[in-house]
């Protein structure tokens, strides 16, 4: 018997035909990150312990704010932050709710870079938001990895 799929962890990977240094810049430079992710983050920097915030620029989500607390920055290897998963129409008092952990890792692979994103901690989200947050972010990461791939290979 196989174990049921986890509802606590989302993991996605994509091969990007660009050097690790280029993919890292797209991740670690807040302004560049915002360009492909869909948030206005100019004038900010990702650094451990720092809170980075800016308005979402994705159509239909403009009423939301990108709001993360950076955990780790290991140049050209790892960037991680904590945030509240997006659940449109189910916004709650996020100040009292747990944040999930998003971790990006980079590895050299096949003449380019393997970028992996892992988001964990959904089991700490209140049950009435958990499934919607998991489903929304699962689909969201598929699109966001395509966005960073396009961004990193065009510029």
Automatic annotation (TrEMBL):
Pfam families linked: AHSA1
InterPro entries tied to this protein: ASHA1/2-like_C (IPR013538), START-like_dom_sf (IPR023393)
Domain Activator of Hsp90 ATPase homologue 1/2-like C-terminal as annotated: residue spans: 18-150
Domain of life per record: Bacteria
Family in the record: Belongs to the AHA1 family.
Name of the protein described by the UniProt record: SRPBCC family protein
Organism of derivation: Caenimonas terrae
Biological classification of the source: Bacteria, Pseudomonadati, Pseudomonadota, Betaproteobacteria, Burkholderiales
């Amino acid at each position: 018997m196989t174990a049921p799929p986890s509802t606590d962890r989302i993991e996605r990977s994509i091969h990007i035909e660009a050097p690790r240094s280029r993919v890292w810049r797209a991740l670690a430079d807040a302004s560049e990150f915002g360009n492909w992710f869909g948030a206005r983050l100019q004038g900010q920097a990702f650094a451990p312990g720092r809170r980075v915030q800016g308005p979402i620029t994705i159509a239909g989500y403009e009423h939301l704010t990108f709001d993360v607390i950076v955990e780790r920055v290991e140049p050209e290897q790892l960037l991680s932050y904590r945030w509240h998963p997006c659940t449109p129409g189910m916004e709650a008092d996020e100040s009292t709710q747990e944040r999930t952990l998003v971790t990006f890792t980079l590895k050299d692979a096949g003449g380019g870079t393997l970028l992996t994103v892992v988001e964990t901690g959904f089991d700490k989200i209140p049950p009435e938001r958990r499934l919607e947050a998991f489903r929304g972010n699962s689909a969201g990461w598929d699109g966001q990895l395509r966005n960073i791939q396009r961004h990193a290979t065009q510029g």
